[in-house]
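User: I'm new to structure prediction. If I give you an amino acid sequence, what do you actually give back? Let's try with this one:
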Amino acid sequence: MRKEVIIAIILGFALGLVITFGVWTANKALKDKDSQSTAEEVSPISQTTPTISPAVFSLSILSPEDQSVQDKNKITLTGTTEPGSQVIIISQLEEDIVETDASGKFSSNLTLDTGTNQITVTAVNQDGDEATKNIDVVYLAQ
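Assistant: Good question. You get back a string of structure tokens that encode the predicted 3D arrangement of the chain. For your 142 residues, that looks like this:
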């Protein structure tokens, strides 16, 4: 019976050594793989040059102000955007398409309806980019 216990202990010790060696080898392989992939991932990033993003296409409405109250039914809508752009102005009573001047300014005469008038202004530049602004103008008829 002592021989069997000693053989079981030796076999258990040998099996433990085999398992420990396998775990050690697997950990070493994973660490080597991680360090190689990290080096590969870092290299392309450090070699790339930063790109300059294009300027954001913007649209500003100078007058009338949003939520303004008017006492005349005719107003002049003015604003600025990129030079050479087409500007589409849509109100409840009419639509107008104007082109900006060399400095990017535009204007359009609009007729207002009694009450709140929702005006949508959309600018489209030569690249096809769009910018849209919405304003509400209230006309109080006297």
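You can read the tokens as a compact description of the fold. Here is one thing that stands out. Residues 1-52 form one domain.
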